[in-house]
Design brief:
Family: Belongs to the glutamate 5-kinase family.
Function: Catalyzes the transfer of a phosphate group to glutamate to form L-glutamate 5-phosphate.
Pathway: Amino-acid biosynthesis; L-proline biosynthesis; L-glutamate 5-semialdehyde from L-glutamate: step 1/2
Oligomer: single chain
Number of helices: 14
Radius of gyration: 22 Å
Structural class: alpha/beta
Number of domains: 2
Catalytic activity: L-glutamate + ATP = L-glutamyl 5-phosphate + ADP
Strand order of the largest sheet: 4-5-3-2-6-8-10-7
CATH topology of the largest domain: Carbamate kinase
EC number: 2.7.2.11
Helix content: 25-40%
């Protein structure tokens, strides 16, 4: 079989690392740190370099099943799987905490958390704060309350969604296989590894096989779907063998031995394109001349002090236009506060938000990461 060349990882400051059940649990067995140790060391090294890592970890159902193995609990219906997920969440998080010098925080997400704009922003704010206080977020789908028709389905796709949610620069998928191959290498001795994929075409998708593990829910197809989602958000994806300690160690040195899925555009370009072109109701926030100049200079958030008034009826998380004193649109962005709250905060200092509203979603009306400037 052809050897995979080492290639440089794209530059990154924040990454989402997805670790599957097949790296944390043997088929039918409980959780083991055998492969997680090297991955945890990579996370720690990255953190020491000033980088941020969000972990999407499978393994809860496998851990729950192992705890009840002697009782032969069936896995037939949704309620039984949900019970196993609830039982296995604690040991799964405990495994990562035992391997991390930093505190670990569990975050369980559902389809509705990522579909509802208000809850989406809440989840995003929580993850940002966890990273800011140097905590390792460990994310999983909230299988305990999810229903089949609204399940995200697998943690590969969840990881891609989380990468976009936290504005990651890179999605890392740790698997039990070295790379994407031209065919399933377990069945085809002529299968060759693919070190780089510039675009996920139907021909590339046809290379995918099924799941290779009895404890996992995903396979190569879900990993390709995840890479496709990430690329659409301007995020590159690196697929590698998480069972190979040397491969994991090389990641910390900026080298990949696996498959790199290229993003067609930068993360910022993809996000700004969406902010500039997504449908927007007839709602806007009028700002004073000073705020308009600060926004035009770039990398500034819209603070309450620069707000003059809120026009229309919008809610937290809605896309709004920001207009200068003459009514010219200078930017578009996601409002952290609804129109009623923005009117109460207009012209006030950020430190007054909690006193005025009784709560706070942060000091900015529109955070700079959620803002795109409109060309004159």
């Amino acid at each position: 079989m052809a050897e995979l060349p080492r290639q440089p990882l794209p530059a990154w400051r924040r990454a989402v690392l997805k670790v599957g059940s097949n790296l944390l649990a043997a088929d039918g067995g409980g959780l083991t740190p055998d492969y997680a140790q090297a991955l945890a060391a990579f996370i720690a090294d990255s953190q020491a370099q000033g980088r941020e890592v969000v972990l999407v970890s499978s393994g809860a159902v496998a851990a729950g099943r192992a705890l009840l193995r002697a009782r032969a609990v069936p896995m037939g219906d949704l309620a039984e799987r949900q019970a196993l997920a609830a039982l296995g969440q604690a040991p799964m998080v405990a495994l990562w905490q035992s391997l991390s010098a930093r505190p670990v925080a569990q975050v369980l997400l559902t389809h509705d958390d990522l579909r509802n704009r208000r809850r989406y922003l809440n989840a995003r704010a929580t993850l940002r704060q966890l990273l800011a206080i140097e905590v390792l977020p460990v994310i999983n789908e909230n299988d305990t309350v999810a229903v089949d028709e609204l399940k995200l389905g697998d943690n590969d796709n969840l990881a891609a969604i989380v990468a976009a949610l936290v504005d990651a620069d890179l999605l890392l998928i740790a698997s039990d296989i070295d790379a994407l191959h031209s065919a399933d290498p377990r069945r085809d001795p002529d299968a060759r590894p693919i070190p780089r994929v510039d675009e996920i075409t139907p021909a590339v998708l046809a290379m995918a096989g099924g799941s290779g593990s009895a404890v996992g829910t995903g396979g190569m197809r879900t990993k390709l779907q995840a890479a496709q989602k990430a690329a659409a958000a301007g995020i590159a994806t690196a697929l590698f063998n998480g069972r190979d300690a040397a491969t994991v160690q090389a990641l910390g040195q900026g080298e990949l031995r696996g498959t790199l899925f290229i993003a067609g555009q930068s993360r910022m370009q993809a996000r700004k394109y969406w902010l500039l072109h997504a449908p927007c109701d007839a709602s806007s926030i009028r700002v004073d001349a000073g705020a308009a100049r600060a926004l035009a200079a770039g990398r500034a958030s819209l603070l309450p002090g620069g707000v003059v008034e809120a026009l229309g009826d919008f809610h937290r998380g809605d896309l709004v236009e920001v207009v200068d004193p003459s009514g010219r649109v200078v930017a578009r962005g996601l409002s952290q506060y609804g129109a009623v709250d923005v009117r109460r905060l207009a012209g006030r200092h950020s430190r007054d938000i909690d006193d005025l509203l009784g709560y706070s979603y942060g000091p900015a009306i529109v955070h700079r990461d959620d803002l795109a400037l409109v060309s004159a």
